[in-house]
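Model: You mentioned two targets. I'll fold them one after the other.
Researcher: Yes, keep them separate.
Model: Target one:
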Amino acid sequence: MTLWVWLKVYILALVSYNSAGDKMSVIPIRVLPDPILRQKSKRVRIIDSSVKKLIDDMIETMHAVPWRVGLAAPQVGVSLRMFVIGIPGEEDIALINPEIVWRTGERLVDEGCLSIPGFIGQIKRAVSVKVKGRDQNGKEIRIKANDLLSQALEHEIDHLNGVLYIDYLESMDKLHKIELEETQL
């Protein structure tokens, strides 16, 4: 991203507040070769105000990028097992200490990543998954998902394990460059 794009993102953060009236921030997104993207994240032991603030900031950061679906804590420099997902037209999801309970089927999908901007690759993902974890209030939740949501859940959980979608490519020749529209910010 250019300096101008990052400046626009930070300006957006200056006027953003959550429902409790707390200021939310857009956090810079880590990109390869940042080593935190390859580390296995630590479990969240206590869901306190700092974890809830991080979730709010991650949601704000995710929404600041128009071509995104999810964001894992390692992508903003925090090695904790948590992520947010925002599928257009659906309610945002925040999951803490998520685990895949089961997955079924297999399909080819085009996948990209905020931490590998400007590229997509075709990889295999499950047709459907069931994931369990905790929400930002500590309540255990289970999500059964298909289509884009199942893909996003697998993708974000991979991030928590230090795995990136490019690790599933048969070869780096299968990675395709795309043009990102900076004007969408």
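Model: Target two:
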Amino acid sequence: MGLLSSLVTWPLAPVRGVVALGELIQRRVDQELNDPAGTRRQLEELEEARRRGEITPEQEHQAQEQILASRISPDAARNTPHKDG
């Protein structure tokens, strides 16, 4: 019976592969979004940019809020408008 079911379900193998790949990507994204070291690194990079004069303290504060909001609710951070200048 195993051979027969393998032959019948063989055309679905690419679909299963795509689903498995999607699940792997989702796990990796979740790991990166929930990594406290990544968040700390982003905040430290912001602080360094401000020290070098690349951004203003106000821009730093806005970026910090956006980074922290993405930690709390990733969907809310995507909907936050970016301010340039």
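Researcher: Noted. Anything on target two?
Model: The chain is about 80% helix and 0% strand.
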